[in-house]
Write a structure and sequence with these properties.
The chain has 15 helices and 3 strands. It has helices at about 25-30, 45-55, 60-75, 80-85, 85-95, 100-115, 125-130, 135-145, 155-165, 175-185, 190-205, 225, 245-260, 265-270, 275-285, and strands at about 260-265, 290, 305-310. Helix 2 (about 45-55) packs antiparallel against helix 8 (about 135-145), helix 9 crosses helix 11 (about 190-205) and helix 13 crosses helix 15 (about 275-285). The radius of gyration is 22 Å and the shape is globular. The two termini are about 35 Å apart. Bound molecules: iron/sulfur cluster. Iron/sulfur cluster binds near residues 164, 206, 218 and 224. Iron/sulfur cluster binds near residues 164, 165 and 219.
C-alpha cells in the first residue's frame, strides 16, 4: 500500500480539541492526512471492522493486512456472517496472513458474541478482553477506535512514544503501570480513537527503535529529545522462519485447506519432515482448535486422518453456510 505523503504540521486539526501550539495539536496536524490511510479507518467507525483489523494486525504488518482485510470483509461482511461460517472457510480467507490460530480465535469470538450478546460487540474493554484472541491491547483498541471509549490502546509503538516523549525514557525502563498512567494522562478524551491511532502511527513511522527526531512533529515537546538521551540499540530480530516449527504448522494448515482430510504420513511426505515432528505440529494445532486429529496411537501419533476443525472448542457444532 502506498504510504501517505507527510505534510508539514500546522494544517487543519482533527476532531480532537487540542490547545494551539501544544504537542497534541502538532500530533493531530501530522495525523490528519493519515487518518484515512487504511480501509478499516472509516467514519463513522465500524466496530466489527475494527475488531477484524486489530486481530489481523496483531502479528502482521499493516501493508500486508490491507488487501487481506478487504477480501475478508467482502466474504464475511458482518459479525453474524463470520459466526455462521465453517472454520475451514475462515481459515481459507485468512490465507497469507499466517498465525492461523488468530483466525480460529476470531471465529470463536464472533460465535460467542452472537450467542451471548445477540451479535452486539461489547463496548467495555474488560468484557472485550474475555473474548478469545482479545488481549488487553486489542480490547482497548476496539473500545476506543470502535466506540470512542476513553482508554489508551498501548501497543509497542505507542508505548515507545509515550515513554520517550512524556517520561524521557525507553519503554523497557518504564514499569507498565507508570506507562499506562502517563498514557491516560496524555489521552485526548474528545477523540480517543483518533488519538490512539495518531500515536501508534507516530511510533511506527517516526519514533522507531532508532528515532527520526528531526522529522518528528512533537520534537519540540519531547522530553527524551530535550534531555539528549541516546536511543537503545534495536532489539534482536525474530529467528529465521525457514525451517521453523511455525512454518511447519502453516504448511499443515495449507495442506488441509487444499486436500481436505489427509493422513499423517502424507503430511509428512508433503512437508518433507519427519513423522514425529509433523505429529507434534498436529497435536499443537489440535490443542488450539485449528484441526481435528484422531485418537493418539501408542507412538504418540494421531491415528486416522487429520482435518480442519469446524467445531468450537466446547464441541458444539455451528451452522454451516450452504
Ligand atoms: S522527538 Fe524523537 S524520541 Fe521524541 S517522540 Fe519524536 S521521534 Fe520519538
Amino acid at each position: 500500500m502506498k504510504e501517505p505523503t507527510p505534510r508539514p504540521t500546522g494544517g487543519k486539526l482533527g476532531p480532537g480539541r487540542q490547545p494551539p501550539g501544544s504537542a497534541g495539536a502538532a500530533l493531530r496536524s501530522w495525523y490528519e492526512p493519515r487518518k484515512d490511510a487504511y480501509p478499516w479507518r472509516t467514519s463513522p467507525p465500524d466496530p466489527y471492522a475494527v475488531l477484524v483489523s486489530e486481530v489481523m494486525l496483531q502479528q502482521t504488518q499493516a501493508a500486508r493486512v490491507a488487501p487481506a482485510f478487504a477480501a475478508f470483509l467482502q466474504r464475511f461482511p458482518t459479525l453474524q456472517a463470520l459466526a455462521a461460517a465453517p472454520r475451514s472457510e475462515v481459515l481459507r480467507s485468512w490465507a497469507g496472513l499466517g498465525y492461523n490460530r488468530r483466525a480460529v480465535a476470531l471465529s470463536e469470538a464472533a460465535r460467542i458474541i452472537v450467542r451471548k450478546d445477540d451479535g452486539r460487540i461489547p463496548t467495555d474493554p474488560r468484557t472485550l478482553a474475555t473474548l478469545p484472541g482479545v488481549g488487553p491491547y486489542t480490547a482497548a483498541a476496539v473500545a476506543s477506535l470502535g466506540f470512542g471509549a476513553p482508554v489508551p490502546a498501548i501497543d509497542i509503538n505507542m508505548g515507545r512514544v509515550v515513554a520517550r516523549a512524556r517520561l524521557g525514557r525507553e519503554p523497557q525502563d518504564v514499569p507498565r503501570t507508570e506507562l499506562r498512567i502517563a498514557a491516560e494522562g496524555w489521552l485526548d478524551r474528545t477523540d480517543s480513537g483518533g488519538w490512539n491511532q495518531a500515536l501508534m502511527d507516530l511510533g511506527r513511522e517516526v519514533c522507531r527503535p532508532r528515532p527520526r527526531c528531526p522529522a518528528c512533529p512533537i520534537e519540540g515537546f519531547c522530553r527524551f529529545r530535550r534531555e539528549g538521551r541516546p536511543a537503545a540499540p534495536p532489539a534482536r530480530r525474530q529467528g529465521p522462519f525457514q525451517g521453523s516449527f511455525r512454518q511447519l504448522r502453516g504448511g499443515v494448515v495449507r495442506a488441509l485447506l487444499e486436500n481436505g482430510s489427509v493422513t499423517l504420513r502424507r503430511l509428512s511426505t508433503e512437508a518433507g519432515q519427519p513423522l514425529d515432528r509433523v505429529a507434534d505440529a498436529c497435536r499443537a494445532l489440535a490443542a488450539e482448535g485449528l484441526i481435528q486429529a484422531g485418537p493418539m496411537a501408542r507412538t504418540g501419533h494421531p491415528m486416522g486422518r487429520v482435518r480442519l476443525a469446524d467445531q468450537g472448542r466446547d464441541g458444539r457444532r455451528f451452522p454451516h453456510r450452504s
